[in-house]
Structures are given as structure tokens and as C-alpha cells.
Amino acid sequence: MRTLLLVVMLALPFSSVQACSCVGGGQPCQAAGISAAVFTGTVVDIANPAPPVFLPGTGGNASRRSADSPPSPLPRQLRTIRFRVADVLTGLAPGQREIEILTGMGGGDCGYPFDTSQDYVIYAHRNSDGHLETGICSRTRLLSRAAEDIQYFHNMAGAPATSEMRVMTGYPGTPAKSGITILAESGGSRYSALTNAAGQATFTGLPPGEYTIHSAADGDLADDPKVQLYAKGCRDLTLFRTLRISGRVVTLTGFPAARVQVEFRSVQGTYDDGRMTAADGSYELRIPRPGRYYLGVNLNHTATRDTPYPRWFYPGTADQALAAQIDFSGRPEDRKYDFALPDRQATRVIRGVVFGRDGQPTPRAVLSVVDSSHAVIAQAFADKSGQFAMDVFGSFPYRLHAVWPGNTTGEAASAPPVDIKPGSDQLDLRLILTQPGNSYLEERRAPTPATKP
After folding, report:
1. Residue pLDDT, tens place only, 130-147
2. Order of strands, edge to edge, in the sheet holding 200-206?
3. Running DSSP on this structure, what letter comes out for residue 168?
4. Among 229, 176, 204, which Cα is nearest to 193's?
5. What is the sign of the dihedral through the CA atoms of 153, 159, 162 and 168?
6. Residue ranges of the alpha helices (H) in 63-165?
7. Superfamily of domain 347-445
8. What CATH architecture does domain 243-340 belong to?
């Protein structure tokens, strides 16, 4: 046991530990459509991997590594599970009675916890080394819990080794387009299907293979999706037709505006998104929904520490009535929009002291400044004397919440929220925790009308 613990402890500094996160394997048809092999079988043997061996000069020998060289990751540890094969849906040779499947060790690497002599239904993919592998993110499960899978096996027993693909072309909140020709191409073969009233094109009888999906009206595009389809399964995907916007943002003096959030917002205010600029001020956005849009900075919130500018619309105005409207018809297109930012916003200081009902300074109180959308734009904590200080931008109205979060012996308490009008002078506040509960959370649950910036 001591030797084993030592090996684990030595390995930790050089390994990359990642938590397993997945959404599950879907229904049997969908799981089969993405699996290279699907079968039922009994676990005959489980072989754990040998401990990694570090060679001189590798990342595993810390004494031989340069101080500036990054540690080499440990090789991925996989268990080998040998199965006695029962029923086969797809992916195994006729008459094959045994097969080995790899899986992780568990504990965060998505490995499946197989037990010897237990019966399972296995959905396996081919990993980067070409070996069959499975895990908890697949639909692999105990046979006793796989009634739906067994029924699917029986239904597909005499079916041809083909599959179905369903391609959606609509988006939530946008009308579907019927009668659009969608193409699926693989290995020189081309298949076509028309979208129905729901905007879905269905391909049936497709042989296994990798398919490129695109709209006949658009031609071939660089971002056309490529999907691998396996036999006796199905796949669902959405064909995104996007307006790709790129450009460069500079400051008023002409320098690159790095790490600034460039945003778009629909004219109706129903859809928005944004991306950060790179070190040279460049950015790229993709708009997937047809409509008319504004482009700029701070369109969806007030100024932040990372984007200390007023709301600013392309091509260069603070007045929304003078802003350019970008029209996306739904046909893929690339456009470029460069623009310059105005002066940075001036800041003001908010200082104060938080007191309890007893008149004593309250440490650990949380001070939150929120804008009209209830987004927190600045936050501070009262020190042991109850004092706090923070910077905000002086051109916007805000609301300040002071909340003592409580502890095991007391409930949360708040001071009456303070409305802060635009201005440049320093504010010195005296806040008293006279209200029970958390005023910020309560206001978010039942928002009251607030002044628009």
C-alpha cells in the first residue's frame, strides 16, 4: 500500500487531471449512429494498465528537467475489458465471440465501472489510436437496464447496414423554411433531401461514412459540418448558416483596443452575443439568426472594467438612431467592420462604512453596484472596520446594495439600497443594515423599475 501511494503522489505533479463532463448517449438509434461497434456481452476479464515508466530526460524525472521546461503529461491510463460477445447490432465481424474494449480508470476520466461476469450492452467508438473504447458518456449500460436497447436490437436485426440523418435548418424564434435542398456528400456520392414545413431534411438509407452537409443554394463553405455516420443508427444536426463579421477595433489615438468585448444586438433586442478582441484589436463574430443587428461595444450592459467606454455603435456614435443596421438575410456571408472607440469613461470613487443595527461597524458585508439590468459592475467587501471603497464610471446611474450574508447563528441583513446618480464627485456613504434578507437577490427575483442608462 505504501508503494502504491508513493507512485500516485509522484504522478500527480506531472499529470493533467480533468473532470468528466457529458450529456449522455441519447436514444439507442442516436447512440448507434455515433458508435463504431454496438453489441451485448459478458465481462470475462479486466486488465489494469501497467504503472507508467519514466525514462531519463522525460517529464517524469523532475531532477532531469530544466526549470523552464513544462512537465510532460502522463500517458492516458486505460483498462482493457475482455468480453464474451452475445448479440451484435453493428461493427463486429460475423461469428466473432470475444473482443477487447478500452475504458478509463474512472474518477474523472469518464471510464466505465465494469464488473467481471456482468452482462452489458456496449456502445464503443474508435479512439485516436484506432482502438475501440467506451465510457460513461456513451449509452453503455448493464443489460438488466437496457430493455429499450434490446428492443432496438431486435427491431433492427434484419435491417440493412444503412442509417438515417436528420438535418435541421431553423432556429428557435425564427420561421422554418420548407422546400430547401440540403446535400449530404461522402466519398464522391451525393444525396439530397428537401426540408419539410418544420425546416427539417431527412436522409434515409445512407451507407456508413463521413458526410459533409450543406445547402445546395449556398455551395461549399469552409464551415460546412462534417459528421461520421455508422450503420443501423441515426444522427441529428443543425446546419448553421451564419453571417461572419470580422474587423479591428482601435482606440481614439489609433492604438489596438485589446481585450474589449465587441457585441451585436438585434434591433428588436431579442438576440445578442459578443466576443473579446485579440491583442491586435481584431475580432470575429458569427450571427446565426436572420435579422437586423447593431454592432458596437457595451450594447447589452453598461461599461465594465474591461470595456471602460460608453455604449458605442458602429460606425461611430453613441446615438442609436444614427447607428448602422446590419441586415442578415440568412444566406452565408463574410463582412468586415472596423471602427474606433471614443474616450474612456471617467471614474468616481464610492467610499463608506457599513454598520449593524447595534451601531457597530460590520466586517464582511458585501457591497454590490448594479446597473439597470441588475448586472453587477463593481463589488467590494467591508474590512474589519466596516469600511469599503470602489471605483465606478461616473456617467451612469447605479444602485448600491450592502448585504451582510449572515452565518450559522444569524440570517442575512441589508441596508436600504442607494440609488447613485451620474456624477464625478466622490461619494461617502453611511449604510445601516436595518432590513432582513438579501436586498440584491430579492430585487433580482422581483425587479423594480430602474432608471435606464
Report:
1. 999 999 999 999 999 999
2. 200-206, 163-168, 234-238
3. E
4. 204
5. negative
6. 147-155
7. Immunoglobulins (2.60.40.10)
8. Sandwich (2.60)
